[in-house]
Design brief:
The structure is a single chain. With about 150 residues, the protein is mainly beta. The protein is built from 2 helices and 10 strands. It has a 4-stranded antiparallel β-sheet, with no helix packed on it. Strands 7-6-4-9 form a 4-stranded antiparallel β-sheet, with no helix packed on it. The protein has a two-stranded antiparallel sheet with strand order 1-2. The longest helix is centred in the first third of the chain and has 13 residues. The radius of gyration is 28 Å and the shape is elongated. The N and C termini lie far apart (about 60 Å).
Length: about 150
Amino acid sequence: MDIRKVKKLIELLEESAISEIEIKEGEESVRISRANSAPVYAQPPAAAPAIAPQPVAQTLAAPPIPVPEPEIDGTVINSPMVGTYYTAPSPGAPSFVKVGQPIKPGDTICIVEAMKILNQIESEVSGVVTKLLVEDGQPVEFGQPLMIVET
């Protein structure tokens, strides 16, 4: 849609009492509305439920007791990106690595799918896989621990 047409629509909206206008031309469409117009509700909003007051003693909780992190023996391999973690190249195929399996630098250890791209993650360390921290098909974050390798 031509920008001149959009500007003309804005001018028409400002000059009239109309609060919103939508125009469609083929596959293109544009909707323009006034920022200062009041919202229109199809039905009135529900009233918020009343919250019963609680005694102060019940609302004050003891601070959580910090739980020490278990010590990790070995090297933690973290996810290099956000995505979905896969243990095998395809469903039903054997996993790249299993607990107790030795690995070396360059070995593919898993796949992280990001934006429909399957990224093979390779080991940068030598050792034996001692623990898998993520299950197949789970979403992972950048820097999230994936597995522990005893080096």
